[in-house]
From TrEMBL:
One of its GO terms (cellular component) is nucleus. PROSITE patterns: SAM_MT_C5. This is S-adenosyl-L-methionine-dependent methyltransferase. Keywords: Methyltransferase, S-adenosyl-L-methionine, Transferase. Belongs to the class I-like SAM-binding methyltransferase superfamily. C5-methyltransferase family. InterPro entries: C5-MTase, C5_MeTfrase, SAM-dependent_MTases_sf. GO terms for molecular function: methyltransferase activity.
Length: 368
Protein backbone atom coordinates (compact mmCIF):
# COMPACT_ATOMS: atom_id res chain seq x y z
CA UNK A 1 0.00 0.00 0.00
CA UNK A 2 1.34 3.44 -0.93
CA UNK A 3 1.85 6.03 1.78
CA UNK A 4 -0.96 8.55 2.40
CA UNK A 5 -0.80 11.86 0.57
CA UNK A 6 0.73 14.40 2.95
CA UNK A 7 -1.26 17.65 2.99
CA UNK A 8 -0.64 21.14 4.32
CA UNK A 9 -3.82 23.07 5.09
CA UNK A 10 -3.36 26.84 4.81
CA UNK A 11 -5.95 29.31 6.18
CA UNK A 12 -7.52 26.28 7.88
CA UNK A 13 -10.37 28.00 9.78
CA UNK A 14 -12.53 25.33 11.44
CA UNK A 15 -11.12 22.66 9.14
CA UNK A 16 -13.48 22.62 6.16
CA UNK A 17 -10.77 21.39 3.79
CA UNK A 18 -9.72 18.73 6.29
CA UNK A 19 -13.30 17.53 6.63
CA UNK A 20 -13.64 17.47 2.83
CA UNK A 21 -10.56 15.28 2.59
CA UNK A 22 -12.17 12.83 5.03
CA UNK A 23 -15.51 12.90 3.20
CA UNK A 24 -13.76 12.22 -0.10
CA UNK A 25 -12.19 9.10 1.45
CA UNK A 26 -8.87 10.04 -0.09
CA UNK A 27 -5.86 8.21 1.40
CA UNK A 28 -4.41 11.42 2.75
CA UNK A 29 -3.42 13.03 6.01
CA UNK A 30 -3.10 16.67 7.10
CA UNK A 31 0.40 16.94 8.53
CA UNK A 32 0.01 20.58 9.53
CA UNK A 33 -2.59 23.34 9.39
CA UNK A 34 -1.99 27.10 9.54
CA UNK A 35 -4.30 29.87 10.74
CA UNK A 36 -4.00 32.97 12.92
CA UNK A 37 -7.64 33.02 14.09
CA UNK A 38 -7.41 31.80 17.66
CA UNK A 39 -11.11 30.94 18.01
CA UNK A 40 -11.07 28.94 14.78
CA UNK A 41 -7.92 27.18 15.96
CA UNK A 42 -9.65 26.31 19.22
CA UNK A 43 -12.52 24.66 17.31
CA UNK A 44 -10.06 22.88 15.00
CA UNK A 45 -8.10 21.44 17.92
CA UNK A 46 -11.33 20.48 19.73
CA UNK A 47 -12.36 18.29 16.81
CA UNK A 48 -9.13 17.06 15.24
CA UNK A 49 -7.04 16.75 18.38
CA UNK A 50 -4.18 18.99 17.27
CA UNK A 51 -3.94 22.75 17.01
CA UNK A 52 -3.02 24.54 13.78
CA UNK A 53 0.16 26.55 13.75
CA UNK A 54 -0.54 30.23 14.35
CA UNK A 55 2.73 31.27 12.75
CA UNK A 56 2.08 34.05 10.26
CA UNK A 57 2.12 32.55 6.77
CA UNK A 58 4.08 35.54 5.41
CA UNK A 59 6.97 34.49 7.67
CA UNK A 60 7.17 30.90 6.46
CA UNK A 61 10.44 29.99 4.74
CA UNK A 62 11.14 27.21 2.22
CA UNK A 63 12.76 25.29 5.07
CA UNK A 64 9.59 25.64 7.17
CA UNK A 65 7.56 24.10 4.36
CA UNK A 66 9.98 21.41 3.21
CA UNK A 67 10.28 19.78 6.63
CA UNK A 68 6.70 18.47 6.24
CA UNK A 69 7.48 16.68 2.95
CA UNK A 70 4.01 17.62 1.74
CA UNK A 71 2.54 16.29 -1.51
CA UNK A 72 -0.50 18.58 -1.48
CA UNK A 73 -1.41 22.14 -0.52
CA UNK A 74 -4.98 22.94 0.50
CA UNK A 75 -5.76 26.66 0.57
CA UNK A 76 -8.77 28.79 1.48
CA UNK A 77 -7.26 32.30 1.67
CA UNK A 78 -9.16 35.36 2.94
CA UNK A 79 -11.90 36.42 0.53
CA UNK A 80 -12.16 40.10 1.52
CA UNK A 81 -9.59 41.33 -1.06
CA UNK A 82 -11.94 40.10 -3.81
CA UNK A 83 -15.31 41.30 -2.48
CA UNK A 84 -17.12 44.62 -2.68
CA UNK A 85 -17.36 44.65 1.10
CA UNK A 86 -13.59 44.40 1.26
CA UNK A 87 -13.19 47.19 -1.33
CA UNK A 88 -11.76 44.71 -3.87
CA UNK A 89 -8.15 45.84 -3.40
CA UNK A 90 -7.00 42.46 -4.67
CA UNK A 91 -3.26 41.97 -4.53
CA UNK A 92 -2.78 45.34 -2.80
CA UNK A 93 -4.88 44.25 0.19
CA UNK A 94 -2.70 43.26 3.16
CA UNK A 95 -4.96 40.22 3.62
CA UNK A 96 -3.83 38.92 0.21
CA UNK A 97 -0.15 38.98 1.10
CA UNK A 98 -0.11 35.53 2.70
CA UNK A 99 -1.32 33.95 -0.55
CA UNK A 100 1.17 36.02 -2.58
CA UNK A 101 3.93 34.82 -0.27
CA UNK A 102 2.97 31.18 -0.79
CA UNK A 103 2.98 31.70 -4.57
CA UNK A 104 6.47 33.17 -4.33
CA UNK A 105 7.60 30.21 -2.20
CA UNK A 106 6.57 27.57 -4.74
CA UNK A 107 9.61 27.82 -7.09
CA UNK A 108 11.98 28.02 -4.14
CA UNK A 109 11.07 24.54 -2.88
CA UNK A 110 13.32 21.58 -3.68
CA UNK A 111 10.19 19.46 -4.00
CA UNK A 112 7.05 21.49 -4.78
CA UNK A 113 3.69 19.87 -3.98
CA UNK A 114 2.28 17.53 -6.60
CA UNK A 115 -1.27 18.72 -5.90
CA UNK A 116 -2.78 22.10 -5.07
CA UNK A 117 -6.40 22.94 -4.24
CA UNK A 118 -7.70 26.46 -3.64
CA UNK A 119 -11.16 27.79 -2.71
CA UNK A 120 -12.34 31.39 -2.73
CA UNK A 121 -15.25 33.68 -3.62
CA UNK A 122 -16.54 34.54 -7.05
CA UNK A 123 -14.44 37.41 -8.46
CA UNK A 124 -11.21 35.64 -7.52
CA UNK A 125 -11.15 34.28 -11.07
CA UNK A 126 -10.73 37.86 -12.34
CA UNK A 127 -8.13 38.90 -9.77
CA UNK A 128 -4.44 39.70 -10.06
CA UNK A 129 -3.86 37.13 -7.31
CA UNK A 130 -5.33 34.40 -9.46
CA UNK A 131 -3.36 35.59 -12.52
CA UNK A 132 -0.11 35.49 -10.54
CA UNK A 133 -0.87 32.00 -9.24
CA UNK A 134 -1.86 30.58 -12.62
CA UNK A 135 1.22 32.07 -14.27
CA UNK A 136 3.47 30.50 -11.64
CA UNK A 137 1.76 27.12 -11.94
CA UNK A 138 2.06 27.25 -15.71
CA UNK A 139 5.78 28.02 -15.48
CA UNK A 140 6.21 25.09 -13.07
CA UNK A 141 4.39 22.68 -15.38
CA UNK A 142 1.13 22.23 -13.48
CA UNK A 143 -2.10 21.23 -15.16
CA UNK A 144 -4.82 23.57 -13.89
CA UNK A 145 -8.61 23.21 -13.71
CA UNK A 146 -10.88 26.00 -12.50
CA UNK A 147 -14.60 26.23 -11.80
CA UNK A 148 -17.39 28.33 -10.33
CA UNK A 149 -19.90 26.05 -8.64
CA UNK A 150 -22.69 26.13 -6.05
CA UNK A 151 -23.88 23.38 -3.66
CA UNK A 152 -27.27 23.54 -5.44
CA UNK A 153 -25.58 21.78 -8.36
CA UNK A 154 -24.54 18.95 -6.04
CA UNK A 155 -28.00 18.33 -4.59
CA UNK A 156 -27.81 20.59 -1.50
CA UNK A 157 -30.48 23.30 -0.97
CA UNK A 158 -28.03 26.14 -0.45
CA UNK A 159 -26.72 28.63 -2.98
CA UNK A 160 -23.06 29.40 -2.23
CA UNK A 161 -21.28 30.17 -5.48
CA UNK A 162 -17.54 29.74 -5.05
CA UNK A 163 -14.38 29.59 -7.12
CA UNK A 164 -12.26 26.43 -7.02
CA UNK A 165 -8.86 25.65 -8.50
CA UNK A 166 -7.30 22.21 -8.84
CA UNK A 167 -3.68 21.91 -9.99
CA UNK A 168 -1.60 18.78 -10.52
CA UNK A 169 2.08 18.88 -11.40
CA UNK A 170 3.04 16.85 -14.44
CA UNK A 171 5.88 14.38 -14.12
CA UNK A 172 8.98 14.70 -16.26
CA UNK A 173 7.63 11.90 -18.47
CA UNK A 174 4.36 13.75 -18.89
CA UNK A 175 6.29 16.89 -19.73
CA UNK A 176 8.16 15.38 -22.64
CA UNK A 177 5.12 13.70 -24.19
CA UNK A 178 2.18 15.97 -23.37
CA UNK A 179 3.77 19.36 -23.89
CA UNK A 180 5.10 18.43 -27.33
CA UNK A 181 1.61 17.43 -28.43
CA UNK A 182 -0.26 20.44 -27.10
CA UNK A 183 -1.29 23.04 -29.64
CA UNK A 184 -0.75 26.74 -29.02
CA UNK A 185 -4.47 27.08 -28.44
CA UNK A 186 -4.44 24.41 -25.73
CA UNK A 187 -1.44 26.00 -24.07
CA UNK A 188 -3.10 29.42 -24.03
CA UNK A 189 -6.28 27.91 -22.57
CA UNK A 190 -4.27 26.77 -19.54
CA UNK A 191 -3.05 30.31 -19.00
CA UNK A 192 -6.36 32.05 -19.71
CA UNK A 193 -8.27 29.34 -17.88
CA UNK A 194 -11.60 27.86 -18.88
CA UNK A 195 -13.92 28.33 -15.92
CA UNK A 196 -16.26 25.35 -15.62
CA UNK A 197 -19.75 26.27 -14.43
CA UNK A 198 -21.46 22.88 -14.68
CA UNK A 199 -21.22 19.89 -12.38
CA UNK A 200 -20.05 17.45 -13.45
CA UNK A 201 -17.93 19.41 -15.90
CA UNK A 202 -19.44 17.33 -18.70
CA UNK A 203 -22.96 18.30 -17.58
CA UNK A 204 -24.13 14.71 -17.97
CA UNK A 205 -25.88 14.54 -14.57
CA UNK A 206 -28.36 16.75 -12.80
CA UNK A 207 -28.90 16.07 -9.13
CA UNK A 208 -32.29 16.47 -7.49
CA UNK A 209 -32.28 18.99 -4.64
CA UNK A 210 -34.09 17.82 -1.47
CA UNK A 211 -36.38 20.01 0.61
CA UNK A 212 -34.98 22.13 3.38
CA UNK A 213 -36.97 20.12 5.97
CA UNK A 214 -34.35 17.37 5.67
CA UNK A 215 -31.72 19.76 7.01
CA UNK A 216 -33.53 21.67 9.75
CA UNK A 217 -34.49 20.69 13.27
CA UNK A 218 -38.17 20.76 14.13
CA UNK A 219 -37.41 21.58 17.75
CA UNK A 220 -35.58 24.72 16.70
CA UNK A 221 -38.78 26.15 15.25
CA UNK A 222 -39.92 26.98 18.76
CA UNK A 223 -36.51 27.94 20.11
CA UNK A 224 -36.65 31.65 20.80
CA UNK A 225 -32.89 32.08 20.77
CA UNK A 226 -32.98 31.86 16.98
CA UNK A 227 -35.97 34.19 16.47
CA UNK A 228 -35.23 37.36 14.51
CA UNK A 229 -35.71 40.33 16.89
CA UNK A 230 -38.86 42.31 16.05
CA UNK A 231 -36.96 45.61 16.09
CA UNK A 232 -34.62 44.39 13.33
CA UNK A 233 -37.60 43.53 11.13
CA UNK A 234 -39.70 46.64 11.77
CA UNK A 235 -36.96 49.13 10.95
CA UNK A 236 -36.45 47.74 7.42
CA UNK A 237 -39.19 49.39 5.40
CA UNK A 238 -39.88 47.70 2.04
CA UNK A 239 -36.85 45.43 2.39
CA UNK A 240 -37.58 42.01 0.86
CA UNK A 241 -36.17 39.44 3.24
CA UNK A 242 -35.18 36.07 1.83
CA UNK A 243 -37.89 34.06 3.57
CA UNK A 244 -37.95 30.29 3.09
CA UNK A 245 -40.19 27.46 4.26
CA UNK A 246 -39.18 23.90 5.17
CA UNK A 247 -40.77 22.76 1.89
CA UNK A 248 -38.42 24.95 -0.16
CA UNK A 249 -35.35 23.51 -1.84
CA UNK A 250 -33.13 26.56 -1.89
CA UNK A 251 -31.55 28.87 0.66
CA UNK A 252 -29.24 31.81 0.05
CA UNK A 253 -25.59 32.06 0.98
CA UNK A 254 -24.86 32.42 4.70
CA UNK A 255 -22.23 35.06 5.45
CA UNK A 256 -20.18 35.80 8.56
CA UNK A 257 -22.76 38.47 9.52
CA UNK A 258 -25.58 35.91 9.78
CA UNK A 259 -27.45 35.86 13.08
CA UNK A 260 -26.76 39.53 13.74
CA UNK A 261 -28.81 42.67 13.04
CA UNK A 262 -27.22 42.82 9.57
CA UNK A 263 -30.12 41.07 7.86
CA UNK A 264 -29.45 42.35 4.35
CA UNK A 265 -27.90 39.63 2.17
CA UNK A 266 -26.55 37.67 5.14
CA UNK A 267 -28.70 34.57 4.56
CA UNK A 268 -32.20 33.10 4.50
CA UNK A 269 -34.75 33.38 7.32
CA UNK A 270 -37.08 30.46 8.07
CA UNK A 271 -40.81 31.00 8.35
CA UNK A 272 -42.21 29.06 11.30
CA UNK A 273 -45.84 30.24 11.33
CA UNK A 274 -48.16 29.33 8.45
CA UNK A 275 -51.34 31.26 9.25
CA UNK A 276 -53.35 32.55 6.34
CA UNK A 277 -51.75 35.95 6.60
CA UNK A 278 -50.61 38.04 3.66
CA UNK A 279 -47.51 40.03 4.45
CA UNK A 280 -46.86 43.41 2.93
CA UNK A 281 -43.24 44.36 2.22
CA UNK A 282 -44.12 48.03 2.73
CA UNK A 283 -45.44 47.19 6.21
CA UNK A 284 -42.70 45.33 8.12
CA UNK A 285 -45.07 44.73 11.05
CA UNK A 286 -47.03 42.29 8.88
CA UNK A 287 -43.92 40.09 8.77
CA UNK A 288 -44.01 39.55 12.52
CA UNK A 289 -46.84 37.04 12.11
CA UNK A 290 -44.52 34.74 10.16
CA UNK A 291 -42.38 33.83 13.16
CA UNK A 292 -39.11 34.37 11.33
CA UNK A 293 -36.02 32.73 12.75
CA UNK A 294 -32.40 32.23 11.83
CA UNK A 295 -30.97 28.88 10.85
CA UNK A 296 -29.19 27.36 13.82
CA UNK A 297 -25.42 26.71 13.65
CA UNK A 298 -26.15 22.99 13.45
CA UNK A 299 -28.48 23.53 10.49
CA UNK A 300 -25.89 25.65 8.71
CA UNK A 301 -23.33 22.94 9.41
CA UNK A 302 -25.63 20.46 7.69
CA UNK A 303 -26.13 22.73 4.69
CA UNK A 304 -22.36 23.16 4.48
CA UNK A 305 -22.04 19.35 4.61
CA UNK A 306 -19.98 19.10 7.77
CA UNK A 307 -20.27 15.77 9.57
CA UNK A 308 -22.45 16.54 12.58
CA UNK A 309 -23.89 14.36 15.38
CA UNK A 310 -27.37 12.82 15.11
CA UNK A 311 -27.49 13.27 11.38
CA UNK A 312 -26.15 10.00 10.10
CA UNK A 313 -27.66 8.39 7.02
CA UNK A 314 -26.58 5.37 5.08
CA UNK A 315 -23.42 6.10 3.13
CA UNK A 316 -23.35 6.30 -0.64
CA UNK A 317 -22.06 3.42 -2.74
CA UNK A 318 -20.39 4.79 -5.82
CA UNK A 319 -17.43 4.57 -8.15
CA UNK A 320 -14.35 6.20 -6.69
CA UNK A 321 -14.17 8.81 -9.43
CA UNK A 322 -17.80 9.40 -10.47
CA UNK A 323 -19.94 12.14 -8.92
CA UNK A 324 -22.13 11.00 -6.03
CA UNK A 325 -25.65 12.01 -5.08
CA UNK A 326 -25.40 14.01 -1.88
CA UNK A 327 -25.72 12.10 1.37
CA UNK A 328 -25.00 13.72 4.75
CA UNK A 329 -21.43 12.68 5.60
CA UNK A 330 -21.04 10.23 8.45
CA UNK A 331 -17.25 10.21 8.91
CA UNK A 332 -15.46 11.19 12.09
CA UNK A 333 -14.67 13.57 13.62
CA UNK A 334 -17.98 15.39 13.76
CA UNK A 335 -18.02 19.15 13.83
CA UNK A 336 -18.64 20.26 17.40
CA UNK A 337 -18.07 23.61 19.07
CA UNK A 338 -16.56 24.01 22.54
CA UNK A 339 -18.97 25.53 25.04
CA UNK A 340 -16.73 28.58 25.27
CA UNK A 341 -17.47 29.53 21.65
CA UNK A 342 -20.47 31.86 21.63
CA UNK A 343 -23.44 31.67 19.27
CA UNK A 344 -22.28 34.72 17.29
CA UNK A 345 -18.76 33.30 17.03
CA UNK A 346 -20.20 30.06 15.64
CA UNK A 347 -22.17 31.97 13.02
CA UNK A 348 -19.09 33.94 12.03
CA UNK A 349 -16.91 30.83 11.74
CA UNK A 350 -19.49 29.00 9.64
CA UNK A 351 -20.09 32.04 7.45
CA UNK A 352 -16.36 32.13 6.71
CA UNK A 353 -16.22 28.42 5.95
CA UNK A 354 -16.90 26.35 2.83
CA UNK A 355 -19.10 23.52 1.63
CA UNK A 356 -17.32 20.29 2.48
CA UNK A 357 -19.26 18.11 0.03
CA UNK A 358 -18.46 20.30 -2.97
CA UNK A 359 -14.76 20.27 -2.13
CA UNK A 360 -14.81 16.52 -1.44
CA UNK A 361 -16.33 15.77 -4.83
CA UNK A 362 -13.81 17.99 -6.62
CA UNK A 363 -10.98 16.25 -4.77
CA UNK A 364 -12.34 12.82 -5.65
CA UNK A 365 -13.35 13.37 -9.23
CA UNK A 366 -10.96 16.04 -10.51
CA UNK A 367 -7.79 16.54 -8.46
CA UNK A 368 -6.90 12.99 -7.37
Amino acid sequence: MSDPIRCLEFFSGIGGLHYALNIAEIPATVVCAFDVNMIANQVYEYNFGHAPSNKTIERLTPKDIEKFKADCWLLSPPCQPYTQGGNMKDIDDPRAQALVHLIDLLPKLDKPPTYLFLENVKNFEESQSRAKLVQMLDEMNYQVKECLLSPIQFGIPNHRLRYYMMARRRSSIDSSSVQQQETEQEESSVIQGEIHTKWPFTGEYQFEVPELCQFIENAANEDLQYRVPEKDIIKRHKFRFDIVRPSDNRTSCVTKAYGSHHLQTSGSLIQTQYLDVKHDWSDPKSLLELGLRFLSPKEISRLHAFPVPEYQLQSNDSCLTKPRLFNPPHCLPHLNFPDSVTLMQRYRLLGNSLNCWVVAELLRCELF
